[in-house]
Amino acid sequence: MTAKRVFSVIGMIIGCVMVFYGVFDKTPNFNGETKSSYTAFGADFYTEVYQASATAANNLDDIGHLMCDLINMTLVFSGLVVICHFGCKLGETFSAQGTSSVQATAVMRDELPKL
């Protein structure tokens, strides 16, 4: 195998690992809800401040989970792009192997070979 084929296969394996990790990451999912409410502070000020702080902390936690989901989706899509890119490179090496050098150059440039 040539170096180009080896690097193409390694690139495809890395793409598969990216997709696998993006799909099977066990980070908890975002539930799609944020909790916020109108608060008017009355006689029980400290309890209401605690509830507002807890609501803000829960919303930040949900944002963190959403970011993890977005990173996982990005890993999946970029892994698929990497697989397609290196798959095309690998296909070029196999198609160029069975043709002459002039035809291989034409295949790489998407031109018709000169007969």
Report on the structure:
By secondary structure, this protein is mainly alpha-helical. It has one domain (3-108). Helices cover 72% and strands 0% of the residues. It contains three helices and no strands. Helix 1 (3-24) runs antiparallel to helix 2 and helix 2 packs antiparallel against helix 3 (101-108). The longest helix is centred in the middle third of the chain and has 53 residues, at 45-97. The radius of gyration is 26 Å and the shape is rod-shaped. 3% of the residues are buried.
Helix-strand sequence: HHH
Q: Detail the poorly predicted runs.
A: none
Q: Given the C-alpha coordinates, what overall shape results?
A: rod-shaped
Distance between the termini: 29 Å
Class by SSE composition:
mainly alpha
How many structural domains?
A: 1
Radius of gyration: 26 Å
- Number of DSSP E strands: 0
- In quaternary terms, these chains amount to single chain
Helix content: over 70%
Chain-averaged pLDDT: 76
Determine the number of helices (DSSP H or I, runs of at least 4 residues): 3
**Strand residues, percent:** under 5%
Largest sheet composition: none
